[in-house]
Amino acid sequence: MKPMTANDRLLVVDDEPDLRTLYELTLLREGYSLVSAETVAEALALLQSERFAVVITDMRLPDGSGLDLLAWLEQQGRNERAIVITAHGSAENAVEALKAGAFDYLTKPVDLRQFRSVVATALGREPGRPAPRREEAAPRTSSSSGALARLAGRSPAMEQVRELIRKVGRSMAPVLLQGESGTGKELVARAIHGEGSRASQPFIAVNCGAIPEQLLEAEFFGYRKGAFTGASEDREGFFQAAQGGTLFLDEIGDLPLAMQSKLLRAIQERSVRPVGAVSETPVNLRLLSATHKDLAAEVQAGRFRQDLYYRLNVIQIRVPPLRERLADLPDIGTSLLERIARDAGVHPVPRLSPGALARLSAYAFPGNVRELENVLHRALALSGASELQAEDLDLPDCVSGEDSAFGGLAPLGQPAAAAAEEEAGLPLDLTQYLDEVERRVLLRALAEYRFNRTAAGARLGLSLRQMRYRMARLGIQVDDGEARDAG
User: Fold this and answer.
1) Is the pLDDT of residue 62 over 90?
2) E strands of 219-330, at which residues?
3) Which residues sit opposite 203 in a β-bridge?
């Protein structure tokens, strides 16, 4: 087997002769061409004289650390992908390396199967596939992905998101997407996947809040035949389905604490144990997560594990709400109308009139892009015109998300009634009083969003699961013909 091209060589940096030899033999058997160094100084001398595809470095070196090499690569604008090897149990070093720009990390003692897999992924090829021959070596340039192109809008906020997507797409660092419901966090996650070396591999999206708690472990890790009643055959979980690709965990803040602990172990060990299995299965995937909650506050409240938060929040991308980028409305509206019209077989694609754009710009969109899509979908279905007018847009009367204590949802009750209630003194039963206030708020939100529980919950900062729980607790019953859950 011929070695890879000169520009695809590997650099191994480790001061322990036995370990360095082990890494060299493993990589040579895979068909790679490589050189070695024992110190930061030796490694920098080699880097200054030639280019490499991947730099594999120990964290601790006699004259510095692997972070020194990462800093030099960053300062020089080099394209080498770095894999850092850290001491066992040193989560802080691993996170620090990823934040410093490492493509991925390994912990000692290094699992050689995992080692080969990570190196292969860094080189942009499938783990287990032989190193390409000279004539097969493909250029490692990438064009803008389809998902990145789907992020409509040219506002500074969106340009910043795009820039971050391009940067984090080059590494394996976990990314936490923070943003309100309906802002397009999954689209951002798909763009990150599309910009990385795993673009041709599976992208598995999971809504953590939509899975019953008792099924979480089986859905995430799979199960073996006979593991429980109804398990008639082996089934893979989300982790196995995302093998070689990306696993996107949406609404990660809704995971119960017990499942958070199991997820943390899977991330640390890079392996999962299916329900009913006696051994663990290695997994090689990139993990992206998203939430509309303030996870730092959830950690302080004891509802989210601090160690898991640190693992997930290596790099954070805030996805701005629509009200912060209303200048993008023409681009977003055009993109949405094109997609809706294409799916509905409508031609030509209707346009938004200046009056329609003005009305959209005057609305705060608590449901963000998802709410805008619903509005345009309804307008397109009910209007046969080639240009949508302001009167075609079915929007609530509220204008600004800052006009009331409920962010655009008018306070319940009349001012006079509130004053009378205050003059009446303190309530005799605080729990009953607060339940009644919550019941009225939920009913108002449901009515405003035409009994769409997903949209009403998002309006109030609640997941669908939380919305259903509160409705059941407060005895709010909605006719099945009226109740709707958005996808």
Assistant:
1) yes
2) 246-250, 271-272, 281-282, 286-291, 315-318
3) 246
Total domain count for the chain? 4
Task: Give 168-189 pLDDT, tens digit per residue.
Answer: 887 888 999 999 989 999 999 9
Domain end residue (candidates: 318, 344, 372): 318
Query: Mean of the pLDDT values across residues 259-264?
Result: 95
The answer on 356 and 256 residing in a single domain is: no
Q: How far apart are CA 242 and CA 261, in angstroms?
A: 20
How do residues 297-313 score in pLDDT, each as one tens digit? 999 999 999 999 988 99
14 and 158 together in one domain: no
Residue 403 within any structural domain of the chain: no
CA distance 249 to 366: 23
Say yes or no: 284 and 388 in one domain: no
* Residue 141 domain flag: no
Statement to judge: residues 343 and 466 lie in one domain: no
Examine the domain organization and report whether 288 and 165 are in the same domain: yes
With a cut of 90, say whether residue 450 has pLDDT above it.
no
Report the chain's terminal Cα–Cα distance, integer Å. 50
- The reply to whether 441 and 465 lie within a common domain is yes
Which residue range is the domain that position 217 belongs to?
Answer: 146-318
Locate the DSSP E strands across 87-190. Answer: 104-107, 175-178
- CB atoms < 10 A from the CB of 394, how many? 11
Q: Would 410 be classed as within a structural domain?
A: no
175 - beta bridge partners? 288, 315
Work out the pLDDT band at 435, boundaries 50, 70, 90: confident
- Cβ 356 vs Cβ 390: under 8 Å: yes
Say whether both 151 and 285 belong to one domain. Answer: yes
My answer on whether 188 and 234 are in the same domain is yes
Decide which of 409 and 194 is more confident.
194
Joined together, the tokens standing for residue 346 give 């409508």
β-bridge pairing 271-272 and 281-282:
antiparallel
Mean pLDDT confidence for 400-410: 39
CB 328 within 8 A of CB 183: no
What integer pLDDT is reported at residue 301 of this predicted model?
Answer: 92
Q: Provide the pLDDT confidence category of residue 141 given band limits of 50, 70 and 90.
A: very low
